Amino acid sequence: MEELTTLVMAKYNYWGVVILLGIGLYAMIAKNNLVKKIIGMNIFQTAIILFYISISTKYGASIPIIHHGHGHTIHPADYMNPLPHVLMLTAIVVSVATLGVALALAVRIYNHHDTLEEDEVLSQLTTDESTQA
Amino acid sequence: MSSQIPAFIIVVPLLAALVVNIAGWARRSLCFPTAVCALAAAWISTIIVMLRVSREGDIIYRMAGWDPPWGISWHIDHLNALILILIATVALINIVATRSTAAQEFPDRLGIFYCLYLLFVTGVMGIVITGDVFNLYVLLEIASLSGYALLGMGGSRASVSSLNYLFMGTIGASLYLFGTGYLYIATGSLNMVDIASILPTLENISLIKVSFVLCLVGLFMKMAFFPLHTWLPNAYSHAPGPSASLIAPLTTKVMLYVMIRVALTIYQPDFAFSQMALQDIVVWLAVIAIISGSILAWKQDRLKRMLAYIIVVEVGYMAGGFWLGNQTGVTGAVLHIVNDAMMTLCLFLTAGAIASRINADAFKHLQGLFRRMPFTMTAFMVAALSIIGVPPTCGFFSKWYLLSGGIEAGHYEFTAALIISSLINVLLFFRVVEISYYEPFDNHQENEQQGIQEASLDMLLPLLATAGLLIVLGFYAHSLVTWIIEPAVSSLFTGSL
User: B324: Cβ–Cβ under 8 A, 6 or more apart, which residues?
Assistant: First the structure.
């Protein structure tokens, strides 16, 4: 038990990521409402952003802004790694764009079917098909 | 100037996408010429790049002059150069062939359609050209997002399928990003060549294994590898014709390229094939993909849905051929990427041409089509023979490499699956031919319109050109392999990148 506690406590950031991934995946698979699915997708993406951000930190390091410029030796251990932050800035843009496309598609579906519940949309589509055939 | 040619491949379609979007508001008739010019320029650039690669060896293009691993570099060898030409060719043929359909289907959204079209091409070209794993993710999402929008431009059915694809695709891309994160923890680098040089020196093998599996599952999802293929049939069969015939040939093939690149360039063949012990599992999955995909294709009663399931089968061919792990199998997979993109393009263009005339794609509506659309159906026959694998069409040669790769690796189940699926393909296509050739065109409501009613010329000529290319590719398969694919594959295997 103690081992487990240390395992969870020492790597709590990864556990957080895993739990968020699970919540996101669960919402995308199990929820019936399209907007809830979209929220689940966003949680899934956010979990990965959290993962990247958490790996950039170091104990006792400060933000990566170098005050004194030239002439001083710079120790990488004193500064957090800025690269994952930069990458995640791009990933946030990507996830916002994905959210936009997903919501636009959901709006189109809502305009046509007057509902966002997936089972109702699908049953309307199958009745469409049988009336066509 | 000529050293900047690789940048043109990406920058020209990207800028043209913006111009086309503006042109869509100002003067709609300018959209199509601008898009065609941009794609033609990109096509010429890819040819020049290919010639340079075959003359001088790999090109390393430093974006904005930053040296790798700090800057993003593009690394072009024989393999990417070949896939770049393939993408540019497919995009160019398709844009010409679908001009009238696009103008008909999106009369008021033409600017947006061509803008998305060019963005998609930018994305897939970028995926292929880049040498940076995070850059690859971003371009992957550019291609995917414009792809979702293109596929969702049809009716509400298309929107539902496209949203479904978006969910699956986002999970896939996110898993790839997750795997890249582990790779970054392990190596501290994002440049493919740099990572490849650091990885063998590392102790923590399990970390690398986790990153490999995450990347791989993400890519499997994106390439619709069985059992993660569920998004594909709906998304491609409900989509508007011009989008489907662009995306269906390219997306899965480009993702297969990424799998080859990730597995062989980043992780190196020794790690990917021997240390991971995944080979048997993936080859068996490919066998199941091929067999079940063929059976599902047989159960469809609509042309486009059948074609969509054939893509699932073909992905099984290529993924299985790659995971055989020998040079013959990988050569077969790369050759089949080229061939299958052209075959899929030909089949989807045929479906588009048929839809432009009879406005239905259920099998029962195809009666008497051979007499009404002889040229279209001839092109369909050529593509069908190529999918089945009849010489001299190109499909035969790649299938031959895949078969001999399977025998060489001792994976007889894969060889058997290839042969069985070829036989099922014969049944699949001859059912269509039987309906369209032998069954008379009478019990249909438009029976007063007898005689030849071909698709319009601007649709027919690119279609016939594609069909011709299938035969030309077949005749030149040997030179294609010896000039381009063999140097590419052997450099992947020796890890000389």
Answer: B279, B283, B330, B405, B406, B408, B409, B411, B414
